[in-house]
Amino acid sequence: MAVFNLRAYDDHEKVVFCRDPESGLSAIICVHSTALGPAVGGCRMWEYNSDEGALIDALRLSRGMSYKNALAGLKMGGGKSVIIGNSKTMKSEALFEAFGKFVNNLNGQYYTAEDVGINPDDMAIVHRKTEYVLGLEGRSGDPSPVTAYGVYKGMKAAVKHRLGRDTLEGVKVAVQGLGHVGYYLCEHLRNEGAELFVTDINKESIDRVVDNLGATAVDKDDIYSQDVDVYAPCALGATINDTTIKQLKCSVVAGAANNQLAEDRHGDVLKQKGILYTPDYVINAGGIINVSFEMEGGEYKKQDALNKVDEIYGTLLEIFGAAEAEGKTTNVVADELARKRIAAAKA
Q1: Catalytic residue numbers?
Q2: Which of 91, 95, 165, 200: disulfide with 23, CB 3.0–4.6 Å?
């Protein structure tokens, strides 16, 4: 496999392959850019089909973190890590301690935090071996509620731009993925009077949202074809692809998942269909904004973090306006703006 020739490589500064036979750890740490500051991005634990698949996912997520942090106005670069394995059966203290040692060897070039398949307790174990961990209990804690809040604010911006509505009352939203972020998002949406159509691979997660929030459950394969105003992908990435994009009946795509477009060209297809795409790494930046306040020094104050997350609304309106004025897709405009900020920092 020619790593440097991979499209996702995108001039990464560093890629570290981590192996610890005793604990069973197989992990990859990607540092895309430290131009704006130390690379920051969560650790994901997933049972990938191949090592190449894990690498490509880590590279794409790492680059996305560079762009996310740049557009959020944070003094942080972008990085990401993945642990290859089943998060339900392979976790152990030895595994996370081994991962912590690899993170520590980077001497602050990369800060890790939780992501899919990882929880604060896991990160506490990693923290035994390295200080370069964010989002721990007693500090900013679980970033999921703040990520969801940012997605909620971003969805309001998209609905304002595309539908001309200042409120989500009566807006129909199809939410795919009801984990921590997805559930908290549904709470915000329901509190404002949105009508929810939801799905997840876990029936218990669906039942919880249906019972607590009055949502309508739909089959996982039918979520794309719902006659709704907004499709909110909140599970894994690439759900906007050649197969699903034909089924969409929404006016807006706005959700928490990373790398929602399977390929950049799908942004063009959405534009042609009259669907407003809300760039994923802009709308889901709430969690990283939240943990960034741990790095500011002094006491962490949640309200200060939420005030910063509120800026996602204005950033998205700026991107939507520029895309319309320049005849470009929103994902292209966001990428261009992020690259300009990173290049300026390097200069």
Answers
A1: 80
A2: 95
